[in-house]
Write a structure and sequence with these properties.
heterodimer; A: alpha/beta; 6-stranded mixed β-sheet; 4-stranded antiparallel β-sheet; 9 helices; B: mainly alpha; 3-stranded antiparallel β-sheet; two-stranded antiparallel ribbon; 5 strands
């Protein structure tokens, strides 16, 4: 299977910030997936996506998208569709004019029938100005523009973050229809696992500007377990079991572990994990690691 | 991209069209009257020996329109910079729509170059048309102004900052520069309002520097030596203050841009107060400037006039256009570099 995005020690630091927005990012994303990019606000999700579109250039390391450098000439731009954060549209232009823009600015790839068909299906009046659309409608318009240029890779930066639950569901529904119909690889970011759970089959967790986890959702779910049993020191677990999260009461221990081997200890009650459990465990582990490092630093000072 | 840039520009284009029509009608209707007035009163005035009143009558005609025309051409470049240039990129950055535009199948270079070219060319065309209208309308007045000598040492006529910058091709250069300057400011500041203010300040400062320092030094001025009894002297004044005498003479060179006039002797020094007091004694408190006194001064002194001849008017106009177009091209190159390297 080919990779649609490959990054190698990718890093980005903005001029106006002291902190790295993305650091030591090495990840391979296979083609043909619906990839969920999840992480808290400010984790670097937008930075990674903007790097992949070529809107910004990396400070260190490199990234290839569909085997080429992002934004490398019109032919490469034509292969990547992008719905930016807050789904920007020209508020003064009508829907029809947005479609015209798509046609003019994507002369070789634009699928006019697809665009008009989708607008009709959504029940939009083409004369309506984008500024008067609701958030959900605007997101649908942005999605239409991104898909009608017939990209091989579609990137969506928090497309549903500002939508109400109904619009959220409708948007994700549209996205799934598009994936089924056109077989396009999709990467969408969100800070909520719930948004991604139903649509994604590949997951990338990004916390504090670093990749914490990347893999097939089914593989990830099959290799993580929740254990609960009498209180014990997690360090006494077999070497094949990596503790990702833990909580303890006086009598009981609850662990979230990663292992590829069966769990034999009869003292444990073993439960499967949900995607939510998984992501939360990795997020809090990354946060706690960050804290330990900070504490270490303050001691050194 | 040309079509899309035009589509985005259409509202500004309508506004410009309306302004052009209004200005065209206003000046088109009143212009022929000025031409008629000039032909019927000023042109034959020498024969009737009433030039002063004829000229005064002409220069007082439609005076508010004169002011409006001059102000229009002076302000249009700044206005176009502020309202067309500053939002061109800054607005896209503010609203995030640049991410939509740059996610299409065109490079950012083409995106920027097309936007600057379409709106920039429109700015220049609009300014050029307005300037042509006002230049045509004002031509009878400008012809009169070129030989009315207001007893003023620094007389500049068509070269005066206000007139020079509001006629012919120079305003086109100003607009190109003001526009690209505002685009660049919007690109760097990423917000429309600060970009408007910065561009206005930068444009006014550049205009002042060019008109007060660069333009006078572009071409070495000519010098002419005029005898004090010559008819070329349009006015001569003899001043006495604090017991000191000074002599000022103004030469009349039609259409010229006068830099300075000095009354000097062969070695280049001005007449001393003592010499003037002795040559031209004031009698009974009356005017000491008699022809006798003048001829006494004229034996030793002459006048040196430093000036740009009127024939250089168009050279200066083309230079002014070239300077500002050159600056606009440089700034466009900077914008291009910024968009490719720094825009995120």
């Amino acid at each position: 299977m080919t990779n649609i995005i490959e990054t190698n020690d990718l890093g980005k630091k903005y001029d106006r910030h002291r902190r790295w927005a993305l650091q030591h990012c090495t990840v391979e994303i296979p083609a043909g997936k619906v990839v969920g990019l999840v992480g808290p606000n400010g984790a670097g999700k937008s930075t990674l996506l903007n790097l992949a579109v070529g809107l910004i250039a990396p400070t260190s390391g490199d990234i290839t998208v569909l085997g080429k450098h992002p934004g490398d000439g019109p032919s490469q731009l034509a292969r990547v569709g992008f719905v930016a954060q807050d789904t920007p549209t020209y508020s003064g232009l009508s829907i029809a004019n947005h479609l015209r823009m798509g046609e003019w600015l994507n002369p070789t790839t634009w699928d006019s029938d697809l665009a008009h068909h989708r607008i009709r299906k959504l029940g939009f009046d083409p004369r309506q100005r984008a500024g008067s659309l609701s958030g959900g409608q605007r997101a649908q318009l942005a999605l239409t523009l991104a898909i009608a240029k017939r990209p091989e890779l579609l990137l969506l930066d928090e497309p549903v973050a500002s939508l109400d639950p109904l619009a959220r569901r409708e948007f994700l529904q549209s996205l799934m229809e598009i994936v089924a119909e056109h077989g396009v690889t999709v990467i969408l970011s969100s800070h909520l696992v719930a948004d991604l759970e139903r649509v994604c089959d590949y997951l990338v967790v990004l916390v504090s500007s670093q990749i914490q986890l990347a893999g097939d959702v089914s593989t990830l779910l099959a290799s993580h377990y929740r254990l609960s049993g009498p209180r014990r020191d997690p360090r006494s677990l077999p070497a094949s079991q990596e503790v990702i999260g833990q909580s303890h009461t006086d009598k009981q221990s609850n662990l979230l572990i990663r292992t590829n081997e069966p769990i034999l200890d009869p003292a444990w009650v073993v439960k499967p994990v949900t995607l939510d459990d998984l992501v939360l465990a990795y997020m809090s582990r990354a946060r706690d690691d960050g804290r330990t490092i900070n504490q270490g630093l303050s001691v050194v000072r | 991209m040309i079509k899309f840039a035009s589509l985005q520009f259409r509202f500004q284009a309508y506004v410009a069209l309306v302004v052009l029509v209004i200005v065209g009608v206003l000046f088109g209707v009143t212009g022929p009257h000025l031409v008629h007035l000039y032909n019927s009163t000023v042109a034959p005035c020498a024969a009737h020996n009433d030039c002063q009143s004829a000229i005064l009558a002409l220069t007082n005609t439609d005076s508010s329109l004169q002011t409006f025309g001059n102000a229009l051409i002076i302000f249009v470049p700044a206005l176009i910079g502020m309202f067309w240039g500053a939002p061109l990129i800054a607005r896209e950055l503010e609203t995030g729509t640049f991410r939509l535009a740059l996610a299409q199948g065109i490079t950012r270079t083409r995106w920027l170059v097309t936007k600057i070219a379409i709106v920039g060319l429109a700015s220049m065309v609009v300014t050029g048309l307005l300037s042509t209208i006002v230049t045509w309308w004002s031509s009878p007045l400008d012809r009169v102004n070129s030989f009315v000598q207001p007893g003023n040492v620094a007389f500049a006529g068509r070269f005066s900052s206000l007139i020079f910058g509001a006629r012919n091709v120079a305003p086109v250069g100003y607009t190109a520069f003001a526009f690209v300057l505002a685009v660049a400011a919007g690109l760097i500041l990423r917000r429309t309002l600060p970009a408007m203010a910065t561009a206005l300040g930068g444009f006014v400062a550049t205009r002042l520097v060019v008109s007060s320092w660069v333009r006078p030094n572009l071409i070495a001025p000519l010098q002419r030596i005029v005898g004090l009894n010559d008819k070329a002297i349009s006015s001569l004044s003899f001043n006495q203050s604090d017991g000191r005498f000074t002599l000022t003479a103004v030469a009349s060179i039609r259409n010229a841009w006068m830099y300075s006039t000095h009354v000097v002797d062969r070695s280049g020094s001005a007449p001393t107060s003592a010499f003037l007091a002795q040559a031209c004694p004031a009698r009974n408190g009356g005017d000491p400037l008699t022809s006798r006194c003048l001829s006494k001064v004229a034996t030793k002194f002459h006048e040196v006039v430093t000036y740009q001849p009127g024939s250089r008017y168009w050279t200066f106009q083309w230079y002014e256009l070239a300077i500002f177009l050159g600056l606009a091209v440089l700034l466009s190159g900077f914008c291009l570099w910024w968009v490719r390297r720094r825009l995120a």
